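Help! Submission page says 'invalid entity' but I think these are all valid:
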Amino acid sequence: MVVKCEEVWREISNYLDGDIEPDLRLAMEEHIRGCQRCTAVLDGTRNVVQLYGDERMLEVPLGFSHRLQHRLDENISRSRRRGFLGWMVAAAAAVLVAGSVEVARSSIFRRPELRSEHAQSGTGVPPDMLVVVSTAGKIFHRSGCPFIHDKAHVQTLTARAAMREGYAPCIRCMKQYLVAG
Amino acid sequence: MPEERTSLTDPAEQFNEEMLIRRIRDGEHDLFYELIRPYERRVYSAALAILRNQADAEDVAQEAVLKALKHIRQFRAESRFSTWLIQITVNEARMRIRKHRAHMIEPIDDHQDEEGNYTPRDFADWREIPSETLERKEVRQKLAEALALLGEKYREVFVLRDMQHLSIEETAKALRISTASVKTRLLRARLMLRDLLAPGLGGSWSSKLSFEKGTKPW
């Protein structure tokens, strides 16, 4: 096998890396022995690889390691703090949720204790509907209901507030909101 | 004679590294610096190869290390930790360069035809630059200047392969290019550096290095 200068230049890198077929290697060596230019190419390329491959070429600026370590430490501490803070927030949120649930249970989801044990709580009463109660009474009514007792001491409030205070809907004027049966 | 390349990681170090990774994944983040310490110079030089600016390179090196810590669980043991770390660094540096491309000087040969044959400059012989001269800062500086003159795609291949001693496959993986591209770019990078460093050569490349006759540090 005979190779030309161009082929030597094209393969010089693979030659230096030992990544070449034995036949081609021999042919290249044969050529290089008799070619001053290719000898200079091989010597120069080998010199380049040796020089740059030296550990001393991997220089870092003064204080590089210290600054890197410092930034890493800072980052680790910050994420720890964040983790702790996150844990605290999560814990606080859990307490808050538990508290809210308790409040909700006591005020919204748990039906308020009715002022009258015989009365029946309504369903679907529009919470913002204005109703009338007598302070000493146990029932809330639509305004104008003839069955309001003690009209001297009535007050107007929302159905929501009335129910929260244990008033029950009037079986007459609020009949539609009472469960049948 | 072909250049022999040896693995930088022996089995004991490899085992130690795996142990460290396991412990860090389990929450011992303080050990992370110990894990990356052997590679910190490589991380920096990979960033510098792409960015050609020391301040940016240091910042990107730090960002890459933090990112590696953050994503340590995503590291898969089938590749070397160092390759994975360099891959992150390359990505970070490339992102930075894209962000600031407008402010950076375009390398002189980015638009050259990668596949075209490169003709090395002709001169009678090569005057050896001895390794001992690397003790001198000005020699290292001149070599770094020559490297900075290469286009980005040549620089990054050369740095990973010839300075960090990654294999062809690892270099390809880190840069997300084919092994054929690694070989082509590596050949050209080596030949271009040879021409840039050739003593007594007054070509366009070396004139950019301001290597006046008789002022070469070697």
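Support: the input was valid. A stray whitespace character was the problem, and the output above is from the cleaned input. Residues 64-109 of chain A form the longest helix (46 residues).
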